[in-house]
Amino acid sequence: MGALARATAARPEAAHQASAYGIAERGGPLVALEVPRRAALPDDVVIDIEFCGLCHSDVHSGRGEWGARQLPLVPGHEIVGRVAAVGAEVTGFTVGERVGVGCLVDSCRECDSCKEGLEQFCERGGVGTYSAIDHRTGEYTQGGYSSSIVVNQGYVLHVPESLDPAAAAPLLCAGITTYSPLRHFGARPGSGVGVVGLGGLGHMAVKLAKALGASVTVFTTSASKVEAARALGADTVVVSGDPEAMASARHTLDLIIDTVAAAHDLDPYFATLRRDGTLVQLGLPAEPMPPVNPRPLLGRRLRYTGSPIGGIAETQEMLDFCAEHAVAAEIEVVDAAGLNAAWDRMVAGDVRYRFVLDVSTLPAPAAPAPHVPAPAAPAE
């Protein structure tokens, strides 16, 4: 409960300073910071953060690889913690309850997508958990590498107590990013699902597809990952550089989840799909992908599409599903002092399969300087 004491020592609903780690200068490392958190509005939930997952998008944003961002920038959108306070109009959340916050903290709530519970497709642009302007409050959002956060109740999730809170944190991004297309495109008993890549997204795709009852084939470029893929539940593992192995997978799959964030040729994977199969792109390469050959698409009525995160209702469904089926991320917990090294290891691919920050290791905000009254003017 250290974060609770630090963030909300006086009145939990009041504005306060949160301890954090973030980027303070362009090109600089993650450093200890303090960020202001607003007083709770009537429909806000104040959360004391326990754990926050580290996503590769944090690195891209923090290091300016997706364009310059306003500084300071506190990353983190895989947040698990406990409710410290609620606004007067909040229903459904109580103080002490374990909750989560994912990639969105608001959206327009008025467009067709928002009304359908598809906030990830908000036509006016959703409000990211960090590095975004909240159009309702005017705040620049700061993320979960911090001791607390204040979020509108419509974007807060219930985290089942049966889930380990650290291992549940990556579900708020990696979990929902893979669950959403698996559900939308019909992964189920009897279907064949392929997973390209075995990183943070890929390992969750394997676990979730198996829990949904599908037969899972993992494609990897590295023979060293064959046993790891099997340990996660893969029924078949194909080293994609082996022509014979790729040929053995021809026309065996209904759905492929492609998690690779480097440019690669998709034609060999299209060959593994049955008629009416779908390849869903989740990885977002920085370099252009090789052109897609339309011939296999036409020949077997294949679909090539993409998918972002899920909406709030679907994310809650995913958390409940994971609790029911004992699905969670494979993680390595790091402390605040190890964040910069963890980012470097993520870039190098040296993690199985997600890092998670233990927020209790953040330094406490500095105590305000005591008030010293000005010396009295000398008597004349």
Automatic annotation (TrEMBL):
Keyword Membrane: no
Family, similarity comment: Belongs to the zinc-containing alcohol dehydrogenase family.
Listed cofactors: Zn(2+)
Reactions it catalyzes: a primary alcohol + NADP(+) = an aldehyde + NADPH + H(+)
Pfam families, per database record: ADH_N, ADH_zinc_N
Coiled coil region boundaries: none
Protein name: alcohol dehydrogenase (NADP(+))
Entry-linked InterPro entries: ADH-like_C, ADH-like_N, ADH_Zn_CS, CAD-like, ER, GroES-like_sf, NAD(P)-bd_dom_sf
Keywords tagged on the record: Metal-binding, Oxidoreductase, Zinc
Organism, scientific name: Arthrobacter ginkgonis
Enzyme Commission number: 1.1.1.2
Keyword flag Zinc: yes
Residue intervals of the Enoyl reductase (ER) domain: 27-357
Stretches that traverse the bilayer: none
SUPFAM superfamilies in the cross-refs: GroES-like, NAD(P)-binding Rossmann-fold domains
